[in-house]
Amino acid sequence: MIDIKVVGPGCKNCVELEKRVKRVVEEMQIEATISKISDFIEIAKSGVLMTPGLIINNRIVVQGKLPSEGIIKNYILEAIKGEGE
Prior knowledge:
The chain is an alpha+beta fold and 85 residues long. It is built from 3 helices and 4 strands; from the N terminus they run βαβαββα. Helix 1 packs across helix 3.
């Protein structure tokens, strides 16, 4: 099970990142929990300095950018590979 957190206060790019993550997870047909961190205190605790941010399995993979669906897919594949080690 992959743990994915979308980090951001709800700006346009943060909302778009969440949509892209959901599309990729659905397309890949993997089990994942997708949660959103939008509270400023929780964002600060997460370690993400610029939003939107993306955390996969407790590793920050994106900060301050809106990655393409292809890039998101690559990060998820890396996380899946990491689970198997």
